[in-house]
Amino acid sequence: MSQWCAWIDTFLNVADGVIALKMQICAWNYVDDVCRSDVIDDENRNEIWVLAQKVVALMIVKQAFYVLVL
Predict the structure, then answer these.
(1) Sign, Cα dihedral of 17, 21, 23, 27
(2) Each residue of 18-48: pLDDT tens digit?
(3) Which has the closest alpha carbon to 24: 68, 66, 62?
(4) Which of 37, 21, 28 is nearest to 70 (CA)?
(5) pLDDT tens, 49-64?
(6) 70: helix, coil or strand?
(7) Quick check: pTM over 0.70?
(8) Which residue intervals of the chain are DSSP H helices?
(9) Contact predicate 17/11, CB 8 Å
């Protein structure tokens, strides 16, 4: 019985990781859309875009590593 609990726990962890990864990819797309719009002035656009890329890319790599390690 405990083996089934371990399988279910692993499945739920992987599902949680996949959902989190999808949310982070959506965040990446949102940042891309905002930085391409006229909401941000040209002077700050590049700085914000580079910082956002680094943060979201780090989140995606961390989550992908988490999913692959399981």
Answers:
(1) positive
(2) 777 777 777 777 777 776 777 667 777 777 7
(3) 62
(4) 21
(5) 777 778 777 777 777 7
(6) coil
(7) no
(8) 2-36, 42-69
(9) no
Distance CA 20, CA 48 (A): 23
Provide the residue ranges of all domains of the chain, joining segments of one domain with +.
Answer: 2-69
**pLDDT at position 70, please?**
58
Distances in Å between the Cα of 28 and the Cα atoms of 7, 17, 35, 40 are: 31, 16, 11, 16
How far apart, in whole angstroms, are the C-alpha atoms of residue 11 and residue 44? Answer: 43
Amino acid identity, position 36? R
**Residue in the structure block whose two tokens are 């797309």:** 29
